[in-house]
Write a structure and sequence with these properties.
This protein has 253 residues and is an alpha+beta fold. It is 34% helix and 21% strand. A five-stranded mixed β-sheet has the order 2-11-7-9-4. A four-stranded mixed β-sheet has the order 5-3-10-6. The protein has a two-stranded antiparallel ribbon with strand order 1-13.
């Protein structure tokens, strides 16, 4: 972190300035675009629902397209823009952002807000994932079953705006951690598959070479008595709440 400290001391010795998002960007609300509009080729598009599930912090390629005739009617997304979800069923997913880093314009539709700015797009997208941003957006998100933030309210959220060299260094560090995290997740997934393979191999037997019994022949099985959480009190006898269908299985071999 000393590199960032040095950059802050050099470029903003009085501290990092904070500004409303609307003071450093122009915000546009999309409309139209349904999943049934997707085509195999054409103009790239990002549907707001895909931001929750198919995209991470940034992307340079789209997984969906629309024909040019429809694209001409939709909101344009320029390179370096942020696409932000305006609607969700939960507070966490409202304002989820993806930075568009492709080489040409794409389009987006309803329930999306495009943030056009002159900052580092990945820096802003990373900031939208922070606890600080989450706490600030809570004041502006409204709704119960469907939660939403208005474009003008999103513009009111105050964000830290360090100079670009500081933003770039922050992005470099976070990108490194993201890369490492992806490698660790890939390794973990490989280990899970390895474990599942050997578990199945070790516990699969030739029927002629080992004894096979019905579970009731090899174990004592008894249905437990229903216990509610209210009946659990501090004491020395441990208890496991397994629900009304819980059974006791005691192996006899």
């Amino acid at each position: 972190m000393s590199r960032i400290d040095d950059l802050i001391a050099e470029y903003c010795p009085d501290g990092v300035e904070r500004k409303p998002l609307g003071a450093i960007a122009k915000l546009y609300r999309g409309n139209g675009l349904q999943k049934k509009d997707f085509t195999d080729k054409g103009i790239g598009c990002i549907h707001y629902g895909q931001i929750y599930t198919r995209y991470d912090t940034f992307t340079s390629q789209t997984i969906s397209f629309v024909d040019k005739k429809l694209a001409d009617k939709l909101l344009k997304v320029h390179p370096n823009d942020l696409i932000v979800t305006a609607t969700s069923e939960n507070l966490e997913d409202v304002c989820k952002a993806v930075a568009w880093l492709g080489g040409s314009d794409i389009v987006t539709g309803g329930h999306s807000i495009v943030v056009r700015h002159h900052q580092n797009a990945k820096y802003l997208s990373y900031y939208f994932q922070t606890l600080d941003f989450f706490q600030r957006k809570r004041a502006y998100v409204h709704g119960t079953k469907v939660m939403e933030i208005k474009k003008d309210d999103l513009a009111k959220i105050v964000v830290p705006v360090p100079p670009l060299p500081v933003q770039e260094e922050i992005v470099r560090i976070l990108d490194s951690f993201s890369s490492l995290e992806a490698e660790l997740e890939a390794e973990l997934e490989a280990r899970r598959k390895q474990y599942a393979y050997y578990r199945n191999e070790l516990l699969t037997f030739d029927r002629e070479r080992v004894q096979w019994l019905k579970l009731g022949e090899a174990a004592f099985i008894n249905k437990g008595t229903y216990i509610t959480k209210k009946q659990v009190i501090p004491g020395n006898i441990p208890v496991i709440l397994g629900g009304c269908g819980a059974c006791l299985l005691a192996l006899g071999v």
